[in-house]
Specification:
Keywords: Membrane, Signal, Transmembrane, Transmembrane helix. The chain is an all-beta fold. It contains no helices and 14 strands. A hairpin with a 4-residue loop joins β5 and β6 (128-134).
């Protein structure tokens, strides 16, 4: 631990802590103080160690499957259960709307709760669809989709803020992170991934940003920023432009993942 404010007189702790202890009953390690000697942690005894190559499917090669009624719109290819054709009422959630832009390009959309969200990619084996998600609050409750816990990560942009994430606007705390101080690298912004475990079946989230910089500090720098759920493969760089950005790529889960061999029928 390195003190970034030499004139301050503070004590602090840094330790490994079990993410499984972040639950409704024990949301934060609030009881940590200078006299704390033990905290919950999880040990692994490598019971599933499969060697340096990992635990794969040796000798079986790539997984091949027959797609059913492959369709495309623009540069996105998709198939069952998604379709551009009229479907039964029970499958209207998977109706793809293919619109033409002013320059003649075709762009696919999903209409979720009355909002058209652009489809960026489709992955059948993962049961996910990547969409252009608004940075502002959005709710998937009551739909056939939820935010993927394995293909998304919470990210924040800015400095000197405490970022906290909730399941909705009022409660259901999920986690958070503290952005680096603006005084560390003399920048007004930083891009960090928040080490927050995304709960399974998350249908909505709300981000809150609290300024942690002392307003009386003469070296204080103001920072604009945002916090949101973003697809894990999105390339965030220091050139990330927030001023004109209203949407970020986010992965929605439409199918439930089941471990084991899967046999696909032709229909």
């Amino acid at each position: 631990m390195t003190a970034k404010y030499p004139d301050s007189n503070r004590c602090a702790s840094a330790f490994i802590f079990s993410s499984y202890s972040f639950s409704i009953a024990y949301p934060l390690p609030t009881g940590i103080n200078i006299r704390t000697t033990h905290v919950p942690a999880v040990l692994s005894w490598n019971s599933t160690y499969c060697g340096d190559g990992g635990c794969g499917r040796p000798g079986l090669g790539p997984i091949n499957f027959n797609t059913y009624k492959v369709e495309s719109c623009g540069n996105v290819t998709f198939h069952y259960p998604f379709s551009m054709k009229d479907q039964d009422d029970s499958n209207d959630w998977f109706k793809v709307i293919c619109n033409k832009t002013a320059n003649g390009e075709k762009v696919p959309f999903l209409n979720i709760n009355g909002t058209n969200l652009q489809i960026l990619d489709f992955n059948f084996l993962d049961g996910t669809v990547k969409i252009n998600h608004p940075i502002t609050y959005f709710n998937l409750t009551g739909t056939r989709f939820y935010y993927s816990d394995s293909h998304n990560i919470f990210w924040s942009l800015g400095c000197g803020n405490l970022v906290t994430f909730f399941g909705n606007e009022t409660d259901n705390f999920i986690g958070g992170c503290l952005q680096p101080s603006c005084r560390i690298n003399n920048k007004t912004s930083s891009i960090i991934g928040c080490p927050v475990t995304i709960p399974k079946g998350l249908s909505s989230f709300f981000a809150n940003m609290s300024d942690m910089v002392d307003s009386s500090d003469y070296m204080r720098k103001r920072s604009c920023g945002f916090a949101s759920l973003i697809s894990y493969d999105f390339d965030l760089t220091n050139d990330f432009d927030l001023s004109n950005r209203t949407h970020v790529p986010t992965q929605l889960q439409w199918g439930t993942l089941i471990s084991g061999e899967c046999y696909l029928n032709d229909s």
